[in-house]
Request: fold
Amino acid sequence: MPELPEIHALAGDLDARIRGKTVVRLDVHSISALKTYDPPASVLAGQIVRAVGRHGKFLDLAAGDVHVVVHLARAGWIRWRESIPAAAGLPGKGPLAARLVFSDKSGLDITEAGTRKRVAVYVVPEPGSVPGIAQLGPDPLGKDFTELLFLEILRTAGRSEIKGVLRQQSIIAGSGNAYSDEILHAARMSPFKPAAMDAAEGRRLFDALQTTLAEAVARLDGLPATALKDGKKSHLSVHGRAGEPCPVCGDVIRQVNFADSSLQYCPTCQTKGKRLADRRLSKLLK
Reply:
């Protein structure tokens, strides 16, 4: 799933490619992808792209007086096309969810791998009209995201496990499963640690959060969309690396499985050498 650093880089790449282009139409190939009907997608015809930005993990394509907002979910992605192929295939078949076509015959494909259709496309007057954006917490790289604000977030979250707090978009926008693993590894904290921690630990986590995300943004900035997935994976320390040695201490990276996801961590760096039990037990193995 693309998270804040990838969406930031993707927005920058698309802004350089499509700013100033004129939209011809939005073709919807997967009916489940388009989440709005008013205004209709046809309102995009003739609109000029003003900018491409992001809100948390949402892409925002501003075209004329409307916005095309895209959430790529777990398996979605954007593919740039210098020219649109003559045949797009049958609607509902294949990975193509929607296609934005421009007057110079170029276009953007919004795709989704697999059968679980979760990619969402909204055509709205304002980004805040999208429920997911309206409910977003503060941006961790925003100028208003201070250490004091973060400590208050932790205090309010109380006994909630810190891994879940870092992933919850209504609490902090942009960090998902991968970067929350990376942040906790950098902070040397268990993913099951309660969010309400002492001030010194909170400051350490705040520094890890901002440093991890800022470094990823700087590393990925300027890369084309085709290079972003590899650019992300190649620099992850623990996420997706179960069974490999920790790059900090050399211990074996371990994994905890959930119903539809997993987390990875280093026992030496994060849990004082103890292995975490299956999440259903929610306890450390003795």
